[in-house]
Amino acid sequence: MDNQTIRDQVAGSLPQHELRQAAFAVISRTQNTPSIQVVAMATALLATCKALDIDVRSLLETTERRINDLDGPFTTTFAAITEYARGEIGNR
């Protein structure tokens, strides 16, 4: 898949269930000390954005807006991901 296709998909609509599963998987797989985990995830995000020529700040803004779609009146997906991160990373 070429970089432009990936950028287009990132900017578009993505399956919420896949986003949830991937977020939990990323948090689960980083098993270092909390400070290393946080910086490693940020480093991976920046490296990926650079490799694909995606503006990381724009991606983060889009993601914040997308969170509204993840959390609605019948679901608390982002809150669940946040609590999972707190349990996996924050309570060590």
Q: What secondary-structure arrangement, pairings included, does this model have?
A:
Elements: H1 3-11, H2 16-29, H3 34-52, H4 56-70, E1 71-72, E2 75-76, H5 77-90
Antiparallel strand pairs: 1-2
Helix pairs in contact: 2-5
Describe the overall structure.
This protein has 92 residues and is mostly helical. It has one domain. The chain has five helices and two strands, in the order ααααββα. A two-stranded antiparallel sheet has the order 1-2. A hairpin with a 2-residue loop joins strand 1 and strand 2. Helix 2 runs parallel beside helix 5.
**Helical residue percent band:** over 70%
Radius of gyration, in angstroms, nearest whole number:
14 Å
- Structural class, please? mainly alpha
Number of strands: 2
What are the secondary-structure elements, in order, as H or E? HHHHEEH
**Range of strand content:** under 5%
Keywords summarizing the entry:
single chain, 92 residues, mainly alpha, 77% helix, 4% strand
Summarize the structure.
The protein is mostly helical.
